[in-house]
Design goal:
CATH class of the largest domain: Alpha Beta
Shape: flat
CATH architecture of the largest domain: 3-Layer(aba) Sandwich
CATH topology of the largest domain: Rossmann fold
Largest sheet: 7 strands, mixed
Structural class: alpha/beta
Strand content: 15-25%
Number of helices: 16
Radius of gyration: 30 Å
Length: about 475
């Protein structure tokens, strides 16, 4: 069942928002500072029970203006002893993150100090917050829509500047505004459909249906273009998967270490050292990249090595880009090289592939590059050396170019990074195209009206304007406590 959940006053347990929830909003573990957050109508009263100004003076926090802070002490409810010196900030509803009266206590970040303050606040009536409860309250109180709530988690988990920028754009309401523009357009199309259905005598039905179909097709194309931004958005969210492949002992692990700028993989002169996939996350021009070193591709009687080669092939099939590394000595007329050329062509037919001629610091580099280029003229080729750093800049540029090639012209400002959003936008576009096709085929307008409503419902699920309570609970349950 779908329902309007914005401004509803409940959480997953069914408890009303009249209570006060509390949690540490900074990561677990020790740190210089930490922030403990309370939200709810009685947050000032509860915090005031343990907060004292210098000189051990009490203060009525409920009378403290919003968006102001005070330095003071947190005392133990047991004996009044000092727990910590803190800065307390008060926010007054609705001008707070949650839309409720809210207190933030900035304390020292030791685990014992944080827990003592939390215990003291719970002693005076606060309840430990559920995962994502502060953002859930913000959503329920109309401070953010569902897409902005999801952007909070994306911003927290972003590992690169591009990923953070995409999340920030969504957090400031970019997707919300765009979805509502599309919804306004759909509501107009739905009104036109209903008008033709109610008053068919006032229109040339064929002409009206054709005009409506053209406008619906245009709306579908716009949504399809938005859905296509997920090609880049998926990479910003999950990382671009790049597999380093090649025969044993050609320098794959050395290349991984060089690109990662640390000794991630073991490097030896013994062929077959790498038996499993080794993964490292790197930042290339703001693009999160998952580099995967793999076992050397060859026929092997070793059971463990066979398993590693199987995993290497599976990684290649799932890759966004494959770096295939060839190093000297390499004779294109040899049986081994011919088999390798066939292997490379098979991979290149499945995935984007960049040929790398390794160990470019060796004298044989020119012969190797010429031989590989002659054998595989249709594939891009780059010489690299992990010893001198040659080719590093070109490799990073190839990664950036691959990412840019996935972009959608005209949609650079807003990129879908969330799988749920992508599925809903794609579904809405599909419903619209079906509606347009139905109209052009002369099928009853009732079918088009139903499909238009389906498209609108899909878009409304993105913002939370029409969404199941179960889905809302599922989304916020993925948040960490304190967010």
């Amino acid at each position: 069942m779908l329902s309007q959940v914005t401004n509803q006053n409940f959480i997953g347990t069914g408890l009303p928002f009249q209570d006060v929830c509390v949690a540490c909003s900074t990561p677990p573990g020790s740190s210089g500072l930490a922030v403990i957050r309370l939200s709810g109508a009685d947050s000032a009263a509860i915090a005031g029970s343990i907060f004292r100004l210098p000189g051990n003076r009490k203060i009525d926090l409920a009378a403290m203006p919003g968006n102001t802070c005070r330095f003071g002490r947190i005392i133990s409810p047991a004996d009044g002893s000092l727990i910590d010196e803190v800065v307390l900030t008060r926010f007054v509803a609705p001008r707070s993150y949650t839309g409720e009266d809210l207190i933030e206590i900035s304390c020292h970040g030791g685990s014992a100090v944080k827990q003592a303050i939390l215990d003291a606040l719970i002693h005076f009536g606060a309840r430990p917050a559920e995962p994502g409860e502060f953002s859930r309250r913000a959503f329920a109180n109309g401070k953010i829509d569902l897409s902005q709530a999801e952007a909070v988690m994306d911003l927290i988990s972003a590992t690169t500047s591009r990923a953070a920028a995409a999340a920030a754009r969504q957090l400031e309401g970019g997707l919300l505004q765009l979805v509502r523009q599309h919804l306004d357009s759909l509501y107009g199309l739905m009104a036109r459909t209903e008008l033709i259905l109610e008053f068919p005598e006032h229109d040339d039905l064929d002409s009206a249906a054709a005009g409506l179909a053209a406008d619906i097709t245009e709306a579908a194309a716009s949504l399809q273009q938005l859905a296509a931004t997920f090609r880049q958005g998926r990479i910003l969210h999950d990382g671009m998967t790049i597999v380093i492949a090649g025969r044993p002992n050609v320098g794959k692990s050395s290349l991984l270490n060089s690109l990662a700028r640390r000794e991630r993989a073991i490097v030896t002169d013994i062929p077959g050292t790498t038996r499993d996939t080794i993964e490292e996350l790197v930042d290339v021009d703001g693009i999160p990249v998952r580099l995967i070193d793999t076992a050397g591709l060859r026929d092997s009687e070793d059971t463990v090595e066979q398993l590693g080669i199987g995993r290497a092939r599976a990684a290649i099939e799932a890759a966004d880009l494959v770096f295939y590394l060839i190093s000297p000595p390499w004779q294109p007329e040899s049986e081994q090289a011919r088999a390798e050329i066939a292997e490379i062509k098979t991979i290149a037919a499945l995935r984007p592939l960049l040929l790398l001629c390794g160990k470019a610091d060796l004298p044989a580099r020119e012969h190797l590059s010429a031989a590989v280029a002659a054998a595989l003229p249709e594939l891009p080729l780059q010489s690299v050396s992990t010893l001198t750093g040659e080719g590093q800049a070109e490799i990073r540029q190839a990664i950036s170019d691959t990412y840019q090639s996935l972009g959608v012209p005209g949609n650079e400002d807003l990129i879908l990074t969330n799988t749920r959003h992508h599925a809903l936008v794609k579904g809405a576009a599909s419903s619209l195209q079906e509606a347009a096709d139905a109209l052009m085929a002369g099928i009853t307008l009732d079918i088009a009206a139903v499909l238009l409503r389906s498209a609108a419902d899909s878009l409304a699920e993105i913002t939370g304007d029409a969404v199941s309570d179960t889905l809302v609970e599922t989304i916020f349950s993925r948040f960490c406590v304190g967010k």
